[in-house]
């Protein structure tokens, strides 16, 4: 969900060749999505190992260091892929790394609960490289479901080492490392060449083989290349050509022979008209044959999952339960954050005066004292006390739902409405990621294959509030609508759910509007896997979400908040013609702000909050206090007093809620959108669309309120 | 050729065997990669509350497939 330190690591990554020069062995970690690959990666490399992004890749690939008794390994965690026939960005990346990345061995992680399906990737990998270690993960889950697997038999049939694992248990890293040591100590096997492809394809590949091997010069499997050429896989051919420094394009005889053979083959297949379909089916059947007699499954092995699914995706309860779960998460967040928030703020604010006197004792001039203590420190204290508690509760709760396997069900439930907006159901997943962080949601849009639908998801992602905006929504709802700080958690959660639904409705509205104007098109096809439910690893989730996500997001907010606080203090204390700079700016924005039901200060706060949404409310409060009024702000009720003193009404609060839901995305998100779409035009659209929606909604809301006499 | 049933006509609880995939290239390959080929046994597990994508059990995994896509997968009830 959220941006993690790893995903945002700025460390320059080394190429595989450079790593090998340092005496390290590069190992690729491949597997279908959701088979516990990342758990294995973390177990191998340790959670705090240094990881980074591979250069020049469109999809983030984590790498990490680990050591066995004999060797030092670099593990490369490839994105999940069902096949190497590349029809999505993830699969392309996995294929490119396995083929051209220079890994000395590939670990293919499989899911013991549906082993047969996983064999497809295993066979394709073994066709490419001779050093493959098959790790059958989730053995514990298979055992619970009464599935038994003959691992030795499988290893014998495959001709590759097969390891049964439960990645969540201790000792699995050692098992993998010693198996890798053994694998690398023995000479590499030949890549598989005897897969049961249809006879005509085999013969055609055989005819191309000598030419293909000449073009490969031993750097690639000639058999694999001939099959790719026969399948008409242009992407693979292009990458292979680049890898072979143009040797493929130069080999015109091979290319024209491949095209001729391909035409002849297409005529020869009456039912499966496409060669690549025939290849894919043959691999699936080979996997089926491979597992025959080795995997014994109970008919009722998945009964528990089916029962939960009937409830959570049922016709009657599917939608209500989804809302209820959302509201429950909000309730726990609001109720749980209330007390620690107050404690933190009174603690942090009690330190402001001592900080001021300490600076004085050090001989700091008054302007520096003011800038640091009343500017930087005060805004920082606000951000920490308002942000940290809700984030530290919301992130782990959401990650628990994610871990348990609920989010794909949300996508399943919401596919119909998304389809009627001519979008993809997986947009529900990216929308959920947006709750954590919109930038992460935008990156997550890579799971959507169709470029048009992906763009729809990217452009509308910021309509759901990210974690940076939640605390502000919660604070405003609690102060103005949920009857003060005490006892209003249930009401607050209900109202927050309503606000979120408004955001979701805006997402649907904007998606539909875009589908009918800028991004016309029909919904494309869609397959979504619904993974088995798993008991989340509670302790791990908490540690991971607090350290990797909460602290990362908070750190980013704090890094922005302190300088913003200092800047604000300067603006409040720089006078032009008897008026402070901040007042001049706020007054300039006042007419527009008033029309929208806000005021100039709030609009200024939203503008200054561009680098991080977390600081919008603290900035507004800071400006109000700088203009006079209260300076001590221990609790939400005192803050409410301050806001009312500055002219806030229920209508103002409602307009702030709406505008914080719909305005320009933060700078990080916009930069991410630029990176993902590669276009400034779409980046601008991503900023303009929610902003326009926010302006219109606020104008209408405040006009309606005036008309009704509020 | 006595019947012309498609995957989207399968009711929850019914099992069938895939006869042919008439999907466009991208979808056809995706379905095959996920283990759905001619001869594969599938079971319909249910429909989403909106009524459209339905969930199918294919080789032990659960796949959600939209009605329009399922309509191109020809089946034989078993």
Question: What separation lies between the terminal Cα atoms of chain B?
Answer: 15 Å
CATH superfamily of chain B: Ferrous iron transport protein A (FeoA)
Average per-residue pLDDT of chain A, rounded, comes to: 83
Distance between the termini of chain A: 40 Å
Can you tell me the number of structural domains of chain B?
1
The DSSP helix count of chain A reads: 31
Number of alpha- plus pi-helical segments of chain B: 2
Biggest sheet of chain A, in brief? 6 strands, mixed
**Which regions of chain A have little confidence, pLDDT < 50, spanning 5+ residues?**
1-14, 48-59
Described by the principal axes of the CA atoms, the overall outline of chain B is globular
- Tell me the strand percentage band of chain B: 35-45%
Number of strands of chain B: 6
3D structure, described in words:
The complex is a heterodimer of chains A (710) and B (78). With 710 residues, chain A is of the alpha/beta class. Chain A folds into three domains: 16-185, Rossmann fold; 199-268; 318-520 and 538-708, no CATH class. Chain A is 63% helix and 7% strand. Chain A has 31 helices and eleven strands. Chain A has a six-stranded mixed β-sheet, with helices on both faces. In chain A, strands 6-8 form a two-stranded antiparallel ribbon. A two-stranded antiparallel sheet of chain A has the order 10-11. In chain A, helix 8 (199-216) packs across helix 9 and helix 18 (407-420) crosses helix 19 (427-436). The longest helix of chain A has 39 residues, at 366-404. Residues 1-14 and 48-59 of chain A have low confidence and may be disordered. By secondary structure, chain B is of the alpha+beta class. Chain B has a single domain, classed as SH3 type barrels. Chain B has two helices and six strands; from the N terminus they run ββαβββαβ. Chain B has helices at residues 25-33, 67-70; strands spanning 5-6, 15-21, 41-47, 54-58, 61-65, 73-77. Chain B has a six-stranded antiparallel β-sheet with strand order 1-6-2-3-4-5. Chain B is globular and about 30 Å long. Chain B starts with a strand and ends with a strand. The interface between A and B is large, with 50 and 41 residues.
């Amino acid at each position: 969900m959220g941006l993690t330190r790893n995903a945002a690591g700025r460390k320059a990554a080394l190429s595989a060749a450079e790593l090998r020069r340092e005496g390290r062995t590069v190992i690729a970690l491949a597997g279908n999505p959701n088979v516990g690959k990342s758990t294995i990666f973390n177990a191998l490399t340790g959670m705090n190992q240094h990881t980074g992004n591979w250069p020049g890749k469109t999809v983030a690939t984590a790498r990490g260091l680990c050591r066995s008794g004999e060797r030092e390994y670099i593990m490369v965690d490839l994105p999940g892929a069902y096949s190497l026939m590349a029809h999505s960005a993830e699969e392309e990346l996995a294929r490119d790394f396995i083929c051209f990345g220079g890994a000395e061995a590939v670990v293919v992680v499989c899911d013991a609960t549906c082993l047969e399906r996983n064999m497809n990737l295993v066979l394709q990998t073994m066709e490419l490289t001779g050093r493959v270690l098959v790790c059958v993960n989730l053995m514990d889950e298979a055992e619970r479901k009464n599935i038994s697997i003959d691992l030795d038999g499988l290893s014998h049939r495959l001709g590759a080492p097969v390891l049964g694992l439960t990645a969540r248990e201790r000792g699995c890293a050692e098992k993998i490392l010693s198996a890798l040591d053994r694998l690398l100590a023995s000479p590499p096997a030949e890549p598989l060449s005897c897969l049961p492809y249809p006879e005509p394809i085999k013969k055609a590949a055989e005819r191309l083989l000598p030419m293909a091997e000449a073009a490969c010069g031993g750097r690639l499997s000639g058999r694999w290349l001939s099959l790719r050429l026969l399948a008409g896989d242009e992407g693979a051919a292009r990458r292979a050509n680049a890898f072979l420094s143009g040797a493929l394009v130069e080999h015109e005889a091979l290319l024209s022979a491949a095209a001729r053979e391909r035409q002849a083959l297409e005529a020869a297949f009456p039912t499966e008209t496409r060669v690549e379909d025939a290849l894919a089916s043959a691999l699936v059947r080979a996997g089926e044959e491979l597992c025959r007699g080795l995997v014994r499954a109970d008919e009722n092995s998945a009964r528990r999952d089916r029962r939960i699914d009937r409830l959570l995706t049922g016709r009657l309860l599917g939608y209500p339960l989804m809302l209820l779960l959302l509201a429950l998460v909000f309730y726990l967040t609001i109720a749980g954050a209330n007390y620690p928030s107050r404690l933190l703020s009174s603690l942090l604010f009690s330190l402001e005066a001592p900080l001021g006197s300490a600076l004085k004792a050090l001989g700091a001039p008054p302007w520096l004292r003011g800038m640091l203590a009343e500017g930087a420190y005060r805004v920082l204290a606000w951000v920490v006390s308002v942000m940290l508690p809700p984030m530290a509760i919301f992130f782990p709760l959401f990650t628990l739902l994610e871990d348990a396997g609920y989010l794909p069900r949300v996508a399943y439930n919401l596919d119909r409405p998304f389809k009627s907006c001519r979008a993809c159901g997986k947009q529900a997943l990216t929308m959920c990621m947006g709750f954590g962080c919109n930038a992460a949601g935008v990156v997550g849009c890579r799971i959507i294959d169709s470029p048009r639908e992906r763009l729809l998801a990217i452009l509308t992602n910021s309509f759901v509030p990210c974690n940076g905006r939640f605390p502000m929504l919660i604070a405003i709802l609690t102060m103005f609508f949920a009857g003060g700080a005490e006892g209003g958690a249930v009401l607050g959660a209900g109202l927050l759910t309503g606000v979120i639904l408004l955001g979701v409705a805006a997402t649907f509205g904007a998606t539909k509007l875009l589908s009918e104007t800028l991004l016309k098109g029909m919904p494309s096809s869609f397959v979504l896997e619904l993974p088995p439910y798993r008991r989340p690893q509670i302790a791990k989730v908490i540690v991971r979400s607090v350290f990797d996500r909460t602290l990362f997001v908070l750190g980013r907010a704090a890094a922005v908040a302190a300088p913003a606080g200092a800047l604000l203090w300067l603006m409040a204390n720089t006078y032009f013609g008897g008026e402070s700079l901040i007042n001049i700016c706020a007054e300039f924005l006042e007419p527009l702000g008033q029309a929208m039901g806000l005021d100039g200060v709030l609009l200024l706060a939203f503008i200054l909050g561009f680098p991080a949404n977390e600081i919008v409310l603290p900035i507004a409060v800071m400006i109000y206090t700088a203009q006079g009024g209260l300076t001590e702000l221990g609790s939400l009720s005192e803050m409410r007093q301050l806001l009312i003193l500055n002219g806030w009404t229920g209508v103002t609060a409602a307009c702030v809620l709406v505008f914080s839901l719909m305005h320009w995305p933060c700078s990080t998100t916009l930069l991410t959108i630029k990176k993902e779409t590669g276009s400034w035009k779409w980046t601008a659209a991503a900023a303009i669309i929610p902003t326009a929606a926010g302006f219109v909604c606020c104008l209408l809301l405040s006009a309606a309120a005036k008309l009704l006499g509020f | 050729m006595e019947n012309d049933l498609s995957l989207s006509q399968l009711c929850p609880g019914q099992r069938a065997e895939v006869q042919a995939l008439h999907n466009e290239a991208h979808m056809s390959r995706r379905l095959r990669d996920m283990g759905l080929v001619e001869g594969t046994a599938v079971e319909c597990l249910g429909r989403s509350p909106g009524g459209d994508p339905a969930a199918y059990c294919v080789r032990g995994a659960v796949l959600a497939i939209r009605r329009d896509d399922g309509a191109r997968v020809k089946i034989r009830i078993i």
